[in-house]
Design a protein that fits this description.
The protein has 426 residues and is α/β, with parallel strands linked by helices. 37% of the residues lie in helices and 17% in strands. The strands form 3 sheets. Strands 4-10-9-8-7-5-6 form a 7-stranded mixed beta sheet, with helices on both faces. Strands 1-2-3-13 form a 4-stranded mixed beta sheet. It is globular. The two termini are 28 Å apart.
Protein backbone atom coordinates (compact mmCIF):
# COMPACT_ATOMS: atom_id res chain seq x y z
CA UNK A 1 0.00 0.00 0.00
CA UNK A 2 2.85 2.42 0.82
CA UNK A 3 4.29 1.60 -2.60
CA UNK A 4 1.01 2.52 -4.33
CA UNK A 5 0.83 5.76 -2.33
CA UNK A 6 4.36 6.64 -3.40
CA UNK A 7 3.53 5.89 -7.02
CA UNK A 8 0.39 8.04 -6.72
CA UNK A 9 2.39 10.98 -5.43
CA UNK A 10 5.02 10.57 -8.14
CA UNK A 11 2.65 10.86 -11.11
CA UNK A 12 -0.54 12.61 -9.93
CA UNK A 13 -1.09 16.28 -8.93
CA UNK A 14 -0.28 17.41 -5.40
CA UNK A 15 -3.75 18.98 -5.17
CA UNK A 16 -5.45 15.61 -5.78
CA UNK A 17 -6.47 15.04 -2.17
CA UNK A 18 -6.48 11.67 -0.43
CA UNK A 19 -8.34 10.82 2.77
CA UNK A 20 -6.50 9.42 5.81
CA UNK A 21 -2.92 9.52 7.07
CA UNK A 22 -2.51 6.08 5.51
CA UNK A 23 -4.65 6.23 2.34
CA UNK A 24 -6.61 3.08 1.53
CA UNK A 25 -7.13 1.31 -1.78
CA UNK A 26 -10.71 0.11 -2.14
CA UNK A 27 -10.73 -3.09 -4.17
CA UNK A 28 -14.34 -4.28 -4.17
CA UNK A 29 -17.77 -3.74 -2.64
CA UNK A 30 -21.12 -5.34 -2.03
CA UNK A 31 -24.30 -3.74 -0.75
CA UNK A 32 -23.33 -1.02 1.69
CA UNK A 33 -19.84 -2.41 2.36
CA UNK A 34 -16.43 -2.12 0.69
CA UNK A 35 -13.09 -3.86 1.25
CA UNK A 36 -9.56 -2.48 1.01
CA UNK A 37 -6.44 -4.11 -0.41
CA UNK A 38 -5.49 -5.39 3.07
CA UNK A 39 -8.80 -7.23 3.42
CA UNK A 40 -10.39 -4.78 5.88
CA UNK A 41 -14.18 -4.43 5.58
CA UNK A 42 -15.90 -1.05 5.92
CA UNK A 43 -19.48 0.15 6.18
CA UNK A 44 -19.65 2.85 3.50
CA UNK A 45 -21.38 6.05 4.63
CA UNK A 46 -20.03 8.21 1.79
CA UNK A 47 -20.66 6.17 -1.39
CA UNK A 48 -17.77 7.50 -3.46
CA UNK A 49 -18.94 11.09 -2.78
CA UNK A 50 -22.72 10.38 -2.90
CA UNK A 51 -22.33 8.43 -6.12
CA UNK A 52 -22.93 4.78 -5.22
CA UNK A 53 -26.58 5.60 -4.73
CA UNK A 54 -28.30 2.23 -4.53
CA UNK A 55 -25.66 -0.35 -3.55
CA UNK A 56 -22.20 -1.57 -4.43
CA UNK A 57 -22.21 -4.29 -7.11
CA UNK A 58 -25.97 -4.00 -7.55
CA UNK A 59 -26.80 -7.12 -9.63
CA UNK A 60 -29.24 -5.32 -11.94
CA UNK A 61 -26.62 -2.71 -12.83
CA UNK A 62 -23.70 -5.09 -13.28
CA UNK A 63 -25.87 -7.35 -15.46
CA UNK A 64 -27.02 -4.40 -17.61
CA UNK A 65 -23.44 -3.18 -18.04
CA UNK A 66 -22.14 -6.65 -18.98
CA UNK A 67 -24.93 -7.27 -21.48
CA UNK A 68 -24.52 -3.83 -23.10
CA UNK A 69 -20.73 -4.20 -23.24
CA UNK A 70 -21.24 -7.46 -25.09
CA UNK A 71 -23.26 -5.63 -27.77
CA UNK A 72 -21.65 -2.20 -28.23
CA UNK A 73 -19.92 0.14 -25.80
CA UNK A 74 -19.74 3.38 -27.75
CA UNK A 75 -21.31 5.14 -30.72
CA UNK A 76 -21.55 8.91 -29.82
CA UNK A 77 -24.61 11.15 -30.10
CA UNK A 78 -24.31 11.25 -33.91
CA UNK A 79 -26.34 8.03 -34.04
CA UNK A 80 -29.68 7.01 -32.59
CA UNK A 81 -29.18 5.44 -29.18
CA UNK A 82 -32.09 3.46 -27.71
CA UNK A 83 -30.85 3.34 -24.07
CA UNK A 84 -30.25 7.12 -24.16
CA UNK A 85 -33.73 7.85 -25.51
CA UNK A 86 -35.32 5.55 -22.95
CA UNK A 87 -33.49 7.17 -20.03
CA UNK A 88 -34.22 10.69 -21.35
CA UNK A 89 -37.93 9.85 -21.52
CA UNK A 90 -37.95 8.67 -17.91
CA UNK A 91 -35.95 11.62 -16.61
CA UNK A 92 -38.03 14.17 -18.54
CA UNK A 93 -41.17 12.69 -17.00
CA UNK A 94 -39.70 12.63 -13.48
CA UNK A 95 -38.20 16.13 -13.68
CA UNK A 96 -41.43 18.07 -13.25
CA UNK A 97 -40.31 20.48 -15.98
CA UNK A 98 -42.94 20.93 -18.72
CA UNK A 99 -41.97 20.11 -22.33
CA UNK A 100 -38.60 18.93 -21.01
CA UNK A 101 -35.52 18.10 -23.08
CA UNK A 102 -32.54 16.16 -21.70
CA UNK A 103 -28.86 16.40 -22.65
CA UNK A 104 -26.43 13.86 -21.18
CA UNK A 105 -22.88 14.59 -20.05
CA UNK A 106 -20.22 12.60 -18.22
CA UNK A 107 -20.18 14.47 -14.90
CA UNK A 108 -21.91 17.00 -12.67
CA UNK A 109 -19.27 19.58 -13.52
CA UNK A 110 -20.01 19.19 -17.22
CA UNK A 111 -23.76 19.26 -16.55
CA UNK A 112 -23.49 22.58 -14.71
CA UNK A 113 -21.12 23.91 -17.38
CA UNK A 114 -23.75 23.08 -20.01
CA UNK A 115 -26.53 24.68 -17.98
CA UNK A 116 -24.49 27.87 -17.72
CA UNK A 117 -23.90 27.82 -21.48
CA UNK A 118 -27.62 27.37 -22.16
CA UNK A 119 -28.71 30.08 -19.74
CA UNK A 120 -26.20 32.70 -20.88
CA UNK A 121 -26.90 31.99 -24.57
CA UNK A 122 -30.66 32.08 -24.06
CA UNK A 123 -30.57 35.31 -22.09
CA UNK A 124 -27.69 37.04 -23.88
CA UNK A 125 -26.02 37.82 -20.55
CA UNK A 126 -22.83 36.58 -18.90
CA UNK A 127 -23.95 37.54 -15.39
CA UNK A 128 -24.82 34.71 -13.01
CA UNK A 129 -26.35 34.74 -9.54
CA UNK A 130 -24.94 32.07 -7.23
CA UNK A 131 -25.23 31.25 -3.55
CA UNK A 132 -22.55 31.88 -0.97
CA UNK A 133 -20.94 28.63 0.28
CA UNK A 134 -21.88 26.84 -2.97
CA UNK A 135 -19.98 24.29 -5.06
CA UNK A 136 -20.76 23.52 -8.70
CA UNK A 137 -17.71 21.72 -10.13
CA UNK A 138 -14.10 21.99 -11.14
CA UNK A 139 -14.24 23.37 -14.73
CA UNK A 140 -13.27 26.94 -15.57
CA UNK A 141 -16.88 28.12 -15.66
CA UNK A 142 -18.17 26.15 -12.65
CA UNK A 143 -15.27 27.21 -10.45
CA UNK A 144 -16.23 30.78 -11.25
CA UNK A 145 -19.74 30.32 -9.80
CA UNK A 146 -18.53 28.39 -6.75
CA UNK A 147 -18.92 30.43 -3.57
CA UNK A 148 -16.43 28.39 -1.55
CA UNK A 149 -12.84 29.63 -1.60
CA UNK A 150 -11.42 26.20 -0.72
CA UNK A 151 -12.66 24.92 -4.09
CA UNK A 152 -12.12 28.01 -6.25
CA UNK A 153 -8.46 28.16 -7.35
CA UNK A 154 -8.82 31.16 -9.68
CA UNK A 155 -10.83 34.36 -9.88
CA UNK A 156 -10.48 34.50 -13.66
CA UNK A 157 -13.76 33.79 -15.39
CA UNK A 158 -15.84 34.31 -18.54
CA UNK A 159 -18.76 35.05 -16.21
CA UNK A 160 -19.57 37.86 -13.82
CA UNK A 161 -20.84 36.17 -10.67
CA UNK A 162 -22.89 37.87 -7.98
CA UNK A 163 -23.37 35.99 -4.70
CA UNK A 164 -26.67 35.93 -2.84
CA UNK A 165 -27.51 35.24 0.81
CA UNK A 166 -29.56 32.24 1.85
CA UNK A 167 -27.77 28.93 1.38
CA UNK A 168 -26.65 28.71 5.02
CA UNK A 169 -29.39 28.90 7.64
CA UNK A 170 -27.42 28.93 10.91
CA UNK A 171 -24.49 31.23 10.14
CA UNK A 172 -24.16 34.70 8.67
CA UNK A 173 -25.93 38.01 9.24
CA UNK A 174 -29.47 36.57 9.14
CA UNK A 175 -28.91 33.47 11.29
CA UNK A 176 -30.69 34.95 14.30
CA UNK A 177 -33.95 35.50 12.40
CA UNK A 178 -36.98 33.21 12.26
CA UNK A 179 -37.39 31.14 9.10
CA UNK A 180 -39.97 33.57 7.71
CA UNK A 181 -37.86 36.62 8.50
CA UNK A 182 -34.72 34.90 7.19
CA UNK A 183 -36.45 34.27 3.87
CA UNK A 184 -37.78 37.82 3.72
CA UNK A 185 -34.30 39.25 4.42
CA UNK A 186 -32.72 37.11 1.70
CA UNK A 187 -35.41 38.14 -0.80
CA UNK A 188 -34.84 41.80 0.10
CA UNK A 189 -31.09 41.28 -0.42
CA UNK A 190 -31.76 39.75 -3.85
CA UNK A 191 -34.08 42.62 -4.82
CA UNK A 192 -31.45 45.14 -3.73
CA UNK A 193 -28.68 43.34 -5.61
CA UNK A 194 -30.69 43.35 -8.84
CA UNK A 195 -31.11 47.09 -8.49
CA UNK A 196 -27.36 47.53 -8.89
CA UNK A 197 -26.60 45.34 -11.88
CA UNK A 198 -27.58 44.52 -15.43
CA UNK A 199 -30.03 41.64 -15.85
CA UNK A 200 -28.37 38.32 -14.97
CA UNK A 201 -28.91 35.19 -17.03
CA UNK A 202 -29.70 32.79 -14.19
CA UNK A 203 -29.52 31.86 -10.54
CA UNK A 204 -27.72 28.56 -9.97
CA UNK A 205 -28.34 26.98 -6.57
CA UNK A 206 -28.02 23.65 -4.77
CA UNK A 207 -31.20 22.95 -2.76
CA UNK A 208 -28.88 21.41 -0.15
CA UNK A 209 -25.27 22.56 -0.44
CA UNK A 210 -23.08 19.48 -0.73
CA UNK A 211 -19.38 20.33 -0.46
CA UNK A 212 -20.36 23.30 1.71
CA UNK A 213 -21.39 20.94 4.50
CA UNK A 214 -24.98 19.88 3.75
CA UNK A 215 -26.38 23.32 4.58
CA UNK A 216 -29.81 24.43 3.38
CA UNK A 217 -32.17 27.40 3.56
CA UNK A 218 -35.68 27.20 5.01
CA UNK A 219 -38.10 25.35 2.74
CA UNK A 220 -39.65 27.79 0.29
CA UNK A 221 -36.75 30.22 0.00
CA UNK A 222 -36.11 29.44 -3.67
CA UNK A 223 -39.84 29.70 -4.37
CA UNK A 224 -39.70 33.21 -2.90
CA UNK A 225 -36.61 33.95 -5.01
CA UNK A 226 -38.50 32.58 -8.02
CA UNK A 227 -41.11 35.36 -7.79
CA UNK A 228 -38.32 37.93 -8.06
CA UNK A 229 -36.47 36.06 -10.79
CA UNK A 230 -39.57 35.68 -12.94
CA UNK A 231 -40.28 39.41 -12.78
CA UNK A 232 -36.81 40.03 -14.19
CA UNK A 233 -36.86 37.15 -16.69
CA UNK A 234 -33.97 35.43 -14.88
CA UNK A 235 -33.72 31.64 -15.19
CA UNK A 236 -33.42 29.27 -12.22
CA UNK A 237 -30.92 26.39 -12.44
CA UNK A 238 -31.36 23.80 -9.70
CA UNK A 239 -28.10 21.89 -9.15
CA UNK A 240 -29.37 18.43 -8.19
CA UNK A 241 -26.03 16.64 -8.60
CA UNK A 242 -26.08 15.63 -4.92
CA UNK A 243 -29.74 16.15 -3.92
CA UNK A 244 -31.47 14.32 -6.77
CA UNK A 245 -33.08 10.87 -7.02
CA UNK A 246 -34.69 10.85 -3.56
CA UNK A 247 -31.62 11.20 -1.36
CA UNK A 248 -33.29 13.83 0.83
CA UNK A 249 -36.16 11.41 1.53
CA UNK A 250 -38.92 13.99 1.64
CA UNK A 251 -38.62 14.74 -2.06
CA UNK A 252 -37.37 13.14 -5.26
CA UNK A 253 -35.65 16.42 -6.22
CA UNK A 254 -34.33 19.00 -3.81
CA UNK A 255 -36.18 21.79 -5.62
CA UNK A 256 -39.50 20.27 -4.56
CA UNK A 257 -39.02 21.76 -1.09
CA UNK A 258 -39.33 25.12 -2.92
CA UNK A 259 -42.04 24.34 -5.46
CA UNK A 260 -44.70 26.94 -4.69
CA UNK A 261 -43.91 28.83 -7.88
CA UNK A 262 -43.24 25.84 -10.08
CA UNK A 263 -40.19 23.87 -11.18
CA UNK A 264 -36.82 25.32 -12.17
CA UNK A 265 -36.11 26.26 -15.76
CA UNK A 266 -33.08 23.98 -15.80
CA UNK A 267 -32.13 21.03 -13.60
CA UNK A 268 -28.69 19.41 -13.51
CA UNK A 269 -27.96 15.89 -12.31
CA UNK A 270 -25.13 13.36 -12.07
CA UNK A 271 -23.51 11.19 -9.38
CA UNK A 272 -26.11 8.75 -8.08
CA UNK A 273 -28.02 8.06 -11.29
CA UNK A 274 -25.12 6.03 -12.71
CA UNK A 275 -24.33 4.28 -9.40
CA UNK A 276 -20.64 4.79 -10.18
CA UNK A 277 -20.79 5.04 -13.97
CA UNK A 278 -19.99 8.46 -15.46
CA UNK A 279 -23.43 9.93 -16.08
CA UNK A 280 -24.53 13.55 -15.80
CA UNK A 281 -26.97 15.76 -17.58
CA UNK A 282 -29.23 18.77 -17.92
CA UNK A 283 -33.01 18.91 -18.12
CA UNK A 284 -34.47 22.15 -19.47
CA UNK A 285 -37.61 23.57 -21.01
CA UNK A 286 -37.48 23.05 -24.76
CA UNK A 287 -37.41 26.81 -25.33
CA UNK A 288 -34.18 27.04 -23.33
CA UNK A 289 -32.55 23.78 -24.42
CA UNK A 290 -33.16 24.45 -28.11
CA UNK A 291 -31.89 28.04 -28.04
CA UNK A 292 -28.30 27.25 -29.06
CA UNK A 293 -27.61 28.50 -32.60
CA UNK A 294 -24.45 26.45 -33.21
CA UNK A 295 -23.67 22.75 -33.48
CA UNK A 296 -23.14 20.71 -30.34
CA UNK A 297 -22.71 16.99 -29.68
CA UNK A 298 -21.26 14.80 -26.94
CA UNK A 299 -18.69 12.13 -27.68
CA UNK A 300 -19.10 10.29 -24.39
CA UNK A 301 -22.27 11.76 -22.90
CA UNK A 302 -25.15 9.30 -23.20
CA UNK A 303 -22.96 6.35 -24.13
CA UNK A 304 -24.88 3.06 -24.53
CA UNK A 305 -22.92 1.54 -21.64
CA UNK A 306 -23.58 4.28 -19.08
CA UNK A 307 -27.19 4.66 -20.19
CA UNK A 308 -27.80 0.93 -19.69
CA UNK A 309 -26.39 1.20 -16.16
CA UNK A 310 -28.46 4.30 -15.36
CA UNK A 311 -31.69 2.78 -16.68
CA UNK A 312 -31.21 -0.33 -14.53
CA UNK A 313 -30.23 1.73 -11.50
CA UNK A 314 -33.20 4.10 -11.79
CA UNK A 315 -35.61 1.18 -12.23
CA UNK A 316 -34.24 -0.45 -9.06
CA UNK A 317 -34.49 2.83 -7.13
CA UNK A 318 -38.14 3.33 -8.08
CA UNK A 319 -39.26 -0.29 -7.72
CA UNK A 320 -37.79 -0.57 -4.22
CA UNK A 321 -38.90 2.90 -3.03
CA UNK A 322 -35.39 3.87 -1.96
CA UNK A 323 -36.60 7.45 -1.51
CA UNK A 324 -38.97 6.19 1.18
CA UNK A 325 -36.14 4.16 2.72
CA UNK A 326 -33.95 7.27 2.78
CA UNK A 327 -36.71 9.13 4.61
CA UNK A 328 -37.31 6.38 7.19
CA UNK A 329 -33.77 5.19 7.86
CA UNK A 330 -32.28 8.66 7.45
CA UNK A 331 -34.74 10.05 9.97
CA UNK A 332 -33.68 7.42 12.51
CA UNK A 333 -30.00 8.10 11.85
CA UNK A 334 -30.38 11.86 12.24
CA UNK A 335 -32.21 11.49 15.56
CA UNK A 336 -29.61 9.03 16.82
CA UNK A 337 -26.80 11.43 15.95
CA UNK A 338 -28.61 14.39 17.50
CA UNK A 339 -28.95 12.46 20.75
CA UNK A 340 -25.20 11.86 20.76
CA UNK A 341 -24.40 15.43 19.73
CA UNK A 342 -26.35 16.82 22.68
CA UNK A 343 -23.66 15.29 24.91
CA UNK A 344 -20.59 16.29 22.87
CA UNK A 345 -19.44 19.89 23.22
CA UNK A 346 -17.51 19.76 19.93
CA UNK A 347 -20.71 19.31 17.89
CA UNK A 348 -22.34 22.59 16.92
CA UNK A 349 -25.15 21.16 14.81
CA UNK A 350 -26.50 17.97 13.24
CA UNK A 351 -28.46 18.88 10.11
CA UNK A 352 -29.81 17.42 6.92
CA UNK A 353 -32.70 15.34 5.65
CA UNK A 354 -32.97 11.79 4.44
CA UNK A 355 -29.57 10.22 3.91
CA UNK A 356 -27.78 13.53 3.47
CA UNK A 357 -26.57 14.41 6.97
CA UNK A 358 -23.99 16.94 8.18
CA UNK A 359 -22.35 17.09 11.61
CA UNK A 360 -20.66 20.46 12.16
CA UNK A 361 -17.69 20.46 14.54
CA UNK A 362 -16.27 23.43 16.45
CA UNK A 363 -13.81 24.07 19.23
CA UNK A 364 -15.92 23.55 22.38
CA UNK A 365 -17.49 26.72 23.73
CA UNK A 366 -16.99 28.64 20.46
CA UNK A 367 -18.34 28.89 16.91
CA UNK A 368 -14.80 28.40 15.60
CA UNK A 369 -14.26 25.58 13.09
CA UNK A 370 -12.07 22.66 14.10
CA UNK A 371 -10.79 20.93 10.94
CA UNK A 372 -8.39 18.89 13.04
CA UNK A 373 -11.32 17.39 14.91
CA UNK A 374 -13.00 16.46 11.63
CA UNK A 375 -9.85 14.67 10.49
CA UNK A 376 -9.57 12.83 13.81
CA UNK A 377 -13.19 11.66 13.57
CA UNK A 378 -12.56 10.43 10.01
CA UNK A 379 -9.51 8.46 11.18
CA UNK A 380 -11.29 7.02 14.23
CA UNK A 381 -14.27 5.98 12.10
CA UNK A 382 -12.03 4.28 9.52
CA UNK A 383 -10.16 2.40 12.23
CA UNK A 384 -13.51 1.07 13.47
CA UNK A 385 -14.79 0.08 10.04
CA UNK A 386 -16.76 3.14 8.85
CA UNK A 387 -16.10 5.47 5.91
CA UNK A 388 -17.51 9.01 6.02
CA UNK A 389 -16.71 12.30 4.28
CA UNK A 390 -15.99 15.85 5.31
CA UNK A 391 -16.58 19.33 3.93
CA UNK A 392 -17.63 22.82 4.88
CA UNK A 393 -17.01 26.37 3.75
CA UNK A 394 -16.27 29.81 5.24
CA UNK A 395 -14.35 28.43 8.24
CA UNK A 396 -16.59 25.47 9.03
CA UNK A 397 -15.73 21.81 9.60
CA UNK A 398 -18.43 19.31 8.75
CA UNK A 399 -18.66 15.53 8.68
CA UNK A 400 -20.62 14.44 5.60
CA UNK A 401 -22.72 11.31 5.94
CA UNK A 402 -24.40 9.99 2.79
CA UNK A 403 -24.74 6.19 2.59
CA UNK A 404 -26.34 4.27 -0.28
CA UNK A 405 -30.12 4.72 -0.19
CA UNK A 406 -30.66 1.01 0.52
CA UNK A 407 -29.11 1.38 3.99
CA UNK A 408 -30.81 -0.87 6.55
CA UNK A 409 -31.85 0.09 10.07
CA UNK A 410 -29.27 -2.31 11.51
CA UNK A 411 -26.52 -0.72 9.38
CA UNK A 412 -27.63 2.75 10.40
CA UNK A 413 -27.38 1.72 14.06
CA UNK A 414 -23.96 0.16 13.47
CA UNK A 415 -22.65 3.31 11.79
CA UNK A 416 -24.19 5.57 14.44
CA UNK A 417 -22.43 3.56 17.17
CA UNK A 418 -19.07 4.03 15.45
CA UNK A 419 -19.74 7.75 14.98
CA UNK A 420 -20.74 8.05 18.64
CA UNK A 421 -17.43 6.55 19.69
CA UNK A 422 -15.54 8.81 17.30
CA UNK A 423 -17.31 11.96 18.50
CA UNK A 424 -16.91 11.07 22.17
CA UNK A 425 -13.20 10.53 21.56
CA UNK A 426 -12.89 14.28 20.91
Amino acid sequence: MNDLHARHRAVLPEWLALYYDRPIEITHGEGRHVWDADGNRYLDFFGGILTTMTAHALPEVTKAVAEQAGRIIHSSTLYLNRPMVELAERIASLSGIPDARVFFTTSGTEANDTALLLATAHRGSNQILAMRNSYHGRSFSTVSVTGNSAWSPTSLSPLQTLYVHGGVRTRGPYAHLSDADFTAACVADLEDLLGHTRAPAALIAEPVQGVGGFTAPPDGLYAAFREVLQRHGILWISDEVQTGWGRTGDHFWGWQAHDRNGPPDLLTFAKGIGNGMSVGGVVARAEVMNSLDANSISTFGGSPLTMAAANANLAHLLEHDLQGNARRVGGLLIERLRAVAAQVAAVREVRGRGLMIGVELVRPGTDEADPGAASRVLEHAREHGLLIGKGGGHSTSVLRIAPPLSLTVAEAEEGAAVLEGALRSL
